[in-house]
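User: My collaborator sent over this chain with a note saying "see what the structure looks like." That's all I know about it. Can you take a look?
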Amino acid sequence: MPVIRWTVLTALAFCIAGAAQAQNRQPISTSLTECSVIFTELADLGTRRGKDQAMTDAALVSASLFIVEARAQAGREGVSEPYGHVQAEQARLTEKWSGRFSSLRLLGENKDWIDYCRALGKSRGLTLP
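Assistant: Without extra context I'll predict from the sequence alone. Here is the result:
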């Protein structure tokens, strides 16, 4: 039984480490943009699955808050055209996240990203619904 626990804990650590490494390698403005894309994907998924409109709207509000903060952060990072930069990142990341929530294999990593986004939003003073 201890070997099984160690294996499960090791696998969990690798999943969390993977999300953390990705977040640490990119500028905060990109992480904020990625969070916007994630919440947009969650809203789209909710719509496709017939979820409550209030939940879908809350995800879209969160996505909007993240994108506004991403543009402001890109400016603080010295990006000369924050709007265009964030828009390009948004397009790239939308392609990355398209359909990811349908994959059971990515369930843990997706949850880690959602948790990270909530923590990032909170650290930025964003009031997420």
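A starting point for your reply to your collaborator: Residues 39 and 112 are 13 Å apart (CA to CA).
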